[in-house]
Amino acid sequence: MAESKSSTRESCSQRVLSAVVFVLLVLVLAAVLQTYRRLTRGHGEVVTASEAVQVGLHTTPRPLEPDPYQPYTVASDEPLAVPLRSHRSHEEHKEPSEPSAKEHAKHARIPRMSAEDALKAEREARENVKFGYGSVMKAYSKLKHLVAKDPHLKDCKSPRLKVLGKCTCPAGSKWDPDEETCLADAGQTFFYMYRAQSDHNYPMSNVDMADLAGLMYYLHHEIVKTNATPGVRMNGITRILRWLVTVRPSQEVEEQDLKFMPFVAFDLGRCSVPGCNRLWDHYGFAVGCQRLARGKDLKYSYTSPNNPFGVWYSLPGPCPALRVGEKDGECMAAYSGGMCEDLSQSPRCTYSADFAGELFLDEIEGLEDFGKWQSKGNREYDPTTDKGTGTSFWNFRESSAWCDRRLARVQSLFKKRYPLLPDDLPAPVC
User: Fold this and answer.
1) pTM score of the predicted model
2) By 3-state DSSP, what share of the chain in percent is helix, strand and coil, each rounded to 5?
3) Domain range list for the chain
């Protein structure tokens, strides 16, 4: 009996000792794992963009895309007001990999502005356009430079376009002398973008734009059908702005064999998609694009050459995570955006925008004074009847003939007012 009790005590002691050893092993293993994470954190395992800025690292987190069903909030001057499906390029986005030391060095070589310089540059950009966007001669000079190396041909055959007397390939392509045709090219390109805007002027950064078909859809679907304030169109829209935009892919987008990053919506200068800073960390400050697709909520027949029902673009600028008035120098220095006067001035530069004209909606619709006209009981467009009252300009949204007529009207007015510039520079495939 005594031997049995002694044996039981020894067995209990062994179990206690084994449990203690197990707990110690778990604690040691946890400590080793924590140390390993700290040591490897500098190789891309930075959790948030703010941490990345603090420690001076460039992160490559998993790519994020806008929720295709998220309703976008529209500010007074923003052109997008409907949920659109996020569109990928024809090539699949590649999963991000661990950034190498070489990649870190590449980003480290990109010069970063000081907070003071970034704030000064933003203020100057706003002051420069405060009273207007100026003449289209700057766009004309830029375009003349862009086509300088293209040939003079009397017979400029498709797919090439005649631009300022030169025969040039359309946006997104480059002439191949061996094949004697224009072949797809992912490098620098140029085309027109359009924006519906109020009478306020501001730089074309941290904004959304569109091709002409996408813009006319927005006006028809969101603006002319609703006039909550007498004499004022929805969102205060009064005009169409045209811009000559030169675009090139960011280094990050180019490494993924893409031309554009996914589209994001901007609201008062702020990216309204969750986790925006992680988008810039992964794609750089690339121009985003998204094709419109005809469906239940898109029963309009506006078309464009390379994007059947139109396309939206997003142009990231300084500190895209904060609204206008909230941006500070530190944020603008850390997230400087992709807009530059000259794309060769820095590897971060992904687009430039030069004013190429404007048209007022009153002029396009043949009205002298929208407020007086509306006060007489007239209405631009009623979606229930698919017609206007006192005007037929916006009638029949599903009619290709009527939609084509509206597109032609806008292009003809631009051509009449700005004869030096081409009436159309089609957007490339999104």
Assistant:
1) 0.75
2) 35, 15, 50
3) 2-43, 71-146+186-417
